[in-house]
C-alpha cells in the first residue's frame, strides 16, 4: 500500500471510529456490534504500525472511551482509568506473556470474566460513599454520585472505616432485568435498548436518579484505584479485601503461573458464560503483583500488565423450518425465524426475530435454507446470513392482513415495518390500554400497567370499552382491591368522561399524533362527527400538520372497527366535543414557542394562559412564530429564534404583557 492510499484509509477509519465512539460512549446507542468495532480499530492499528508517520495523538487508538457529557459535572481522575488492550487469539495472549517475561521473573496471573457494562469509580472517606463518576476519557469523567446511590449492590457504608479508598467497578444490567425493561419499553411504544450494556449506560447517565433507580442496576467491583490506611501487595489479596469491606466482587479470580493454564481458564469461562447473570464479552488477564505492575507501567492508552481476551461471536449453523408472523404491542407485524434448536452461548435457542421484510430480502432468506445464527450481545439470537439454499427452499411473503384481527396491513412512507393500524387489535390491547389511561391522556388514576394486567388476566375487561363498565361488586375482593381503592378507581374512571376532547384524541394512540397535535386537531375539528367526516387534505391544512400526520389521522378514522369502538364510548357518556375555554382574546392569532425552564411557571401553566386568551402554542420555531418564551437552559429553539429574528421574551416580560393587556392568568 502506498503512503497516499494509507493516509486516505486512515482518515476514513478515524472518522468512522470516532462516529461509532460517540454513538457508543456518549449516546449509548451503538449502530454496530462490538466485534465489528474491534475489527475497525484493529485495522487502524495495523496501518498505523505500518506507517508510523500517520500515528497522531488524537487517533482513536490512543484514546480511552468517550468524553464527559456536558450535562454532568466533570470529575478528574487522579489515577487514570485506563482501557485494556484486546487480544483476539491465543497466540496474541502468548505474545503478551512473552513481553511480560522478557522483563519479569516468576509471574502470576489472575483471570477474571470481562463484564460487559459501564466502568465507574466510587470514592469513600472513613468508610462512607462520597462520590461516583464514569470513566469518560480516562482522565475526566462525569459525576454520577446520586445515580450510583440507587444501586443496591454498591454499599453506601463499608464494613471498616478505612480513611480513604477509591474503587473501580463495572455497572451492569442483569439479563433478566434487561428483558423486562425491553418488554416495558415496547409497551410504552419506546425504542428498546439493543443490549444490556447500552441499557446500563443509558440508565446510569440519567439526569433524574429516580429513573436510574427503577432500572435495577448492579455492580461488580474489580479494582482498587487508590487507598489510604491499608497496604495491599497483590491483586488477589485486594479482591478478598474488597469483599470483606462489603463490595460485590466476582468470585471467579483464579491465580495461574503459566499462560497455558490461563488459556484453559479462559476457555472454561467461555463455555459457561451463558450461566452468568451479566453479559461477558471476554476474559481479563492481570499480573497479580502490584510491584511488578509498577515496573511494567503503561502505554498512552493501555497498562502493559494486563490483557483482555475478546471472545469471537459464537456462530452456529442450522436449518430454517418456517417463518412465523406476530403482531407486536405497537402494531408492528414482525417475522420470526423458527429453526432447528441449537446450543448457543450456553443456552438452547430455536427462534430469532427477522425484524421486517426488507431484512429477509436483503439476506435472501428462504424457508428451508441452511442459516448462520449468533447471539447479539450474548442475549438475543439473530440470523447472520444464509449459508446455502437447499432443494426444498422456498420464498416467504408477508401477509396482506393482520394475523390477529384481519385488518389491512399498511406500510408508511420511509418505514420498513408493516403495521396493523387497528387499535382494537387484540395483540395490541394492553399497550393501548396503558396509553389510554395514562396521565397525559385520559388520566385515570389507579389504572396503571399492573392493575390493567390484573384485570385482563382475571377477564374483567377485554377492551377499553369494558373499563367504563366495571362494577364495584366485581372489583371488591380482587387482590389489592379494598373498598377505598375500588371507590377511588371508579371515581377516576367517571371523572375521565368529562376530560377535554383533545385528551381523548391523544388517548386513542393514533400514530404520529402527540398531545400537542391532538390539541391542534380538536381546535380545527371540534367534535368527533367532524373528525369522522374530515378529509386528508383538510387535515393537512392545519398549521403544524404534515402529509404523514394527516394521512395517519384519516386512516385511523376510516377503519370501521375504530368507528365502532368510538361510538360505544360515546354511548357510555365520554365527552367527544371541544370545550371552549377562551375567556379573552388579547393573544388572538399570536403564536408562541416555549423553551427552557421558566422561573415560576410550568410549561403547562404558561400554555394554559396563552390558549385561554386566544393564543396558540407550537413546538417548532418558524417565521410564523410571534414570540419565543425562553427560560433557563434554553437550547436550539432559542438559537433558531435569533437566526429568524423572532422576538424572544422572558417570563417577566410575558407576565408584564399579561398585566398590561389585562390578560387572564391562572
Question: Can you describe this structure?
Answer:
This protein has 666 residues and is α+β, with helices and mostly antiparallel strands. 36% of the residues lie in helices and 20% in strands. The chain starts with a helix and ends in a 6-residue tail after the last helix. The mean pLDDT is 88.
Give the secondary structure arrangement, pairings included.
Elements: H1 3-26, H2 34-50, E1 74-76, E2 86-87, H3 90-101, E3 109-115, E4 118-125, E5 128-134, E6 140-142, H4 145-148, E7 164-172, H5 175-187, H6 196-204, H7 209-214, E8 218-228, H8 235-245, E9 254-256, H9 259-272, E10 280-287, H10 290-296, E11 306-310, E12 315-327, E13 332-344, E14 347-353, H11 357-362, E15 370-376, E16 380-388, E17 409-410, E18 418-420, H12 429-437, H13 449-457, H14 464-467, H15 472-475, H16 483-496, H17 501-507, H18 515-524, H19 528-533, H20 536-540, H21 547-558, H22 560-571, E19 591-595, H23 603-612, E20 616-618, E21 627-630, H24 636-643, E22 647-649, H25 651-660
Parallel strand pairs: 2-11, 19-20, 19-21, 21-22
Antiparallel strand pairs: 1-6, 3-9, 3-10, 4-5, 4-7, 7-8, 10-11, 12-13, 12-15, 13-14, 13-18, 15-16, 17-18
Helix pairs in contact: 1-2, 17-18
Based on the model shown, name its key terms.
20% strand; Helix Hairpins; 666 residues; alpha+beta; OB fold (Dihydrolipoamide Acetyltransferase, E2P); D-amino Acid Aminotransferase, Chain A, domain 1
Summarize the structure.
The protein has 666 residues and is an alpha+beta fold.
Any idea how many domains?
Answer: 5
CATH topology of the largest domain: D-amino Acid Aminotransferase, Chain A, domain 1
User: What portion of the residues fall into strands of 2 or more residues?
Assistant: 15-25%
Count of individual helical segments: 25
